[in-house]
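Hey, quick one: can you model this chain's 3D structure?
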Amino acid sequence: MSLNEMLAAIPTLSFAERQLVIRQAMEADEELTPEEIAILDARLKEFRPGSGGGIPAESLKAEVMQRLRPR
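Sure thing. Here's the predicted structure for all 71 residues.
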């Protein structure tokens, strides 16, 4: 199955099936290196000066993964 065929099939999936696809895709991604996390955190602070700097990348990833877990 080609990428275009897979993308075309996504709208036909149920909500639970789409969540599973997303969860598996996220789990297949490699972890960010400490250097990459530091770059993202620095860019966030530059993007929103005076806003407290946002949240660390690891906290954001943990929150997203928690929301994607089956209930």
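One thing worth noting: The chain has a mean pLDDT of 87.
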